[in-house]
TrEMBL record:
Gene Ontology molecular function, alphabetical: methyltransferase activity
One GO term (biological process): methylation
The Methyltransferase domain, residue ranges: 54-168
Source organism per UniProt: Anaerosacchariphilus polymeriproducens
Ranges in a coiled coil: none
Alphabetical list of Pfam families matching this protein: Methyltransf_31
Protein name per Swiss-Prot or TrEMBL: Class I SAM-dependent methyltransferase
Keywords for this protein: Methyltransferase, Transferase
InterPro entries named among the record's database cross-references: CFA/CMAS, Methyltranfer_dom, SAM-dependent_MTases_sf
Keyword Transferase tagged: yes
């Protein structure tokens, strides 16, 4: 247990400004609001099927659900799905999409998972499967432990590792912020280690991905400024420096970015 406690103490959140994080994800929600349902070739759905994690009576928790595409997809196969997210806009769009699709067994609500009381809200050992798919909601040992405790059977977490985000990396360097905050590779080790030391037998898979992002200049400014503010204090001068940098990358009113990452999928 001493080793487990030592590991927990090392896994800490890098987030310094929750308000900036909310504003960033609210802005990003615009690009996700009209989503396509994941098909059977999706990594998450393939693992769930391969490991027989759910059936028609299952209850699922989707942490950092965003606009709820996985919640909506799984709703067809289980009894009920609960989705939580920090961004009010993500939840708003998610609810609108559920209504359009006529899905009744999904409940989405806005909350800060780091402050959510799973005991008071009777989440402990409630769900057959708990998901956390590429979400900063699981950013330290406390939030991960709550994820584990909310499940009575299975869990799946997707985490970025070895990520390069060209625009954000340059901005973080300009702000004297360690670019590792964008992809804490050690968090994958912490998660696996916690599960192992708690008596689980976690499995892990990897998936290399590249995303080409195109955003209009104003939207990009809002996103990148708030992303930087999430990790460090920004003066007006520093904020203007970010905007000037983005202006130098402006191509006919748009900012283009390329993200390369290895997604680590840990499940138990």
């Amino acid at each position: 247990m001493e080793l487990l406690e030592e590991l927990k103490s090392k896994w800490q959140s890098d987030c310094k400004d929750k308000k900036a994080a909310v504003e960033m994800w609210d802005t990003i929600s615009e690009q996700y609001k009209n989503y396509e349902m994941p098909d059977e070739g999706n990594i998450l759905l393939k693992i769930i099927e391969k490991e027989n994690m759910i059936d028609s009576n299952s209850k699922v928790l989707d942490i950092g659900c965003g606009v709820g595409q996985y919640s909506a997809s799984l709703s067809q196969k289980v009894s009920e799905v609960t989705g939580v997210d920090l961004s009010p806009k993500m939840i708003e769009y998610g609810k609108q999409n559920l209504e359009k699709m006529g899905i009744k067994n999904v409940n989405l609500f806005c909350c800060d998972w780091s402050e959510y009381d799973i005991s008071k809200n009777e989440f402990e050992n409630k769900f057959d499967l708990v998901l956390a798919v590429m979400t900063p909601a699981i950013g330290d040992s406390s939030t991960f432990e709550k994820m584990i405790k909310s499940s009575k059977k299975h869990g799946i977490m997707f985490k970025h590792s070895r990520r390069t985000d060209e625009i954000s990396n340059d901005i973080m360097k300009m702000m004297n912020v360690d670019t590792k905050v964008l992809s804490r590779d050690e968090n994958v080790l912490y998660a696996f280690g916690m599960l192992w030391l708690m008596g689980y037998q976690p499995k892990i898979e990897y998936n290399d991905q590249q995303w080409n992002i195109k955003r209009n200049y104003d939207e990009a400014c809002e996103i990148y400024v708030n992303r930087a503010r999430t990790f460090t204090t920004l003066t007006q001068e520093k904020e203007e420096k970010i905007r000037q940098f983005l202006e130098s990358k402006n191509q006919n009113g748009f900012i283009h970015d390329t993200i390369r990452t290895t997604i680590a999928v840990i499940y138990w």
